[in-house]
# Entry
Amino acid sequence: DGGITQSPKYLFRKEGQNVTLSCEQNLNHDAMYWYRQDPGQGLRLIYYSHIVNDFQKGDIAEGYSVSREKKESFPLTVTSAQKNPTAFYLCASSRQGGDTEAFFGQGTRLTVV
Amino acid sequence: AQSVTQLDSQVPVFEEAPVELRCNYSSSVSVYLFWYVQYPNQGLQLLLKYLSGSTLVKGINGFEAEFNKSQTSFHLRKPSVHISDTAEYFCAVMRRTGGFKTIFGAGTRLFVKA
# Structure
């Protein structure tokens, strides 16, 4: 079955550590996105990529980094520079073209301990 | 720039009653419009979308939405809700040209009571 897989589902990080969230898709989509979800704030865009080896900052990119070395994969690293990383992180993908919806993974809940 | 306002953060409703979740958007360019649903601790899934044509759009699970260009609204409706409709609902817009970022509203939590 085609879809988007995020791992792990739950992740705990000590302060000062970098952690990497995995996102893999087998939908053959060109575009991939990372969102952060906090209660009452909807989804905020962290980074997005419309093609391999290229990505752009979203609205809240500070403290995060990404790579897009393969079409199927778009990992997100939450660095120690991110001051408030505890949140629910969602990865999504879509075909190129504006008339298509985004397909989402099941999310990763990151907690700083 | 685009923005999306969901007018109610929470909507409690009794089972089998009708419901309307309100969404207004702002954009200087033409946009596509979407409604997504999110069940607890899961990702989002598409309910319905408006691309063009008829302003009344039907989606999954008995939901429908009406695009009103003059009022820049895209309200979601269901004539009779079930307990299983309890979830968070997000309205979203995407500009038709010049980039395909999706902008989401803050979400409306629908709580269906028995």
